[in-house]
Amino acid sequence: MFGCKRYIGTYLVACGMLTAPVASVAMARAVPTPHAVAAADVKALAAATDTFLKKYVSPEGNVNYRAVKSSPAQLNTLVQQVQTMAVQSLTPAEKKAFYLNAYNVLVIGAVLESYPLTSVMKLPGFFDKKQLTVAGEKMTLNELETNKLRKPYNDPRVHFALVCAAKGCPQLSREAYTPAKVEAQLTAQAQRVLRNPKFIRVEESTKKVQLSEIFKWYDADFKATGKSTVAYINQFRGRQLIPAGFTTDYYTYDWTLNDSGR
């Protein structure tokens, strides 16, 4: 009996000496940091957004709003994730990817609130009055664009990634932005948009290039790069360079809804 008690006592002492510290280490490892949690949430949002875009956005960048409206659960979940995201501990790349995806998701969500619709311009205050929740903050789409992307990053490429639900916008990418690839994705999107003859209209016969009014509205953003507008565009056009000496003008923005059903 004594030997049995001694064995039990030794076993218990051994557990106290060996397993308690191991358990503490395991417990410490099991508690993720606030950044790890937020970063995982951003990745999860990007993955879910990617699935949504591939399902409802055409290769031309138009949205099947009718289909989304008939089955809104997927979009509603994305909007809720955007609203509740914790961003305080995120890295600049994580925030950049999050806010790019947030803008495009919220635009689609705002359109669906009034769909069927022919243009967001029929909704007064769509960009500068309507308050939306982004990561716990109330803001307009213009404030999201300016305060969370344009000012912090000074990166004109965001103008080709943000899509305002219009035919005149850059085509909506069917790929969500991720922290690991956001810089490469922005470059690829700029190349895709700025090589599109519908977006940059080069007229060889008149030696003129017709530009989207985006380049007029955000002229200061492009000038801040130290390049002329044409030089900025040319860096993304590969061999399709706009010749020196061509004059520039702006074609009228097409605010028709980017609806794949129309």
Automatic annotation (TrEMBL):
Matching entries from InterPro entries are given as: DUF547
One Pfam match, given by its short name, reads: DUF547
Q: Which UniProt keywords apply?
A: Signal
Q: Which residues form the DUF547 domain?
A: 88-192
Q: Which domain of life is it from?
A: Bacteria
Query: So which residues are the signal peptide here?
Result: 1-25
PANTHER family xrefs: ELECTRON CARRIER/ PROTEIN DISULFIDE OXIDOREDUCTASE, ELECTRON CARRIER_ PROTEIN DISULFIDE OXIDOREDUCTASE
Q: What is this protein called?
A: DUF547 domain-containing protein
Per the UniProt entry, what species is this protein from, by scientific name?
Hymenobacter elongatus
Taxonomic classification: Bacteria, Pseudomonadati, Bacteroidota, Cytophagia, Cytophagales
